[in-house]
Amino acid sequence: MSKKPKPIVLTLKEMERKGTRELLGYLNKLHKCEESFESSDLDKNPDLTDKVTIYFKQTEKWKIAYKDVKSILKNREHIK
């Protein structure tokens, strides 16, 4: 994954091709997203125009990405 501060939208197939450590890093980025636009200090909602980047947890993009990455990780080996 690139060093972008916000996670990008990945398809389930793209996630399945990534290694476990990379997926854990992606999950960590998802956890760092703000709760919602309403609770942020932004004037404009970037989520309305940017379909590639995930900004807030209270969006379908975040919910789908979180569900998908968790479903893949539950079947992967554990890393210590």
What does this structure look like?
- With 80 residues, the chain is mainly alpha-helical.
- It is built from 3 helices and no strands.
- The two termini are 20 Å apart.
* Mean pLDDT across all amino acids: 90
Low-confidence stretches: none
Q: Count every beta strand, where a strand is a DSSP E run of 2 or more residues.
A: 0
Largest sheet: none
Number of helices: 3
Q: Label the structural class.
A: mainly alpha
Oligomer: single chain
Helix content: 25-40%
**End-to-end span in angstroms?**
20 Å
The general outline is: elongated
- Integer-rounded radius of gyration: 13 Å
Order of helices and strands: HHH
Amount of beta strand: under 5%
Please provide a brief summary of the model:
The protein has 80 residues and is mainly alpha-helical. Helix content is 39%, strand content 0%. It is built from three helices and no strands.
Chain-wise SSE layout:
Blueprint: H1 12-16, H2 20-31, H3 60-73
List keywords for this structure.
3 helices, single chain, mainly alpha, 80 residues
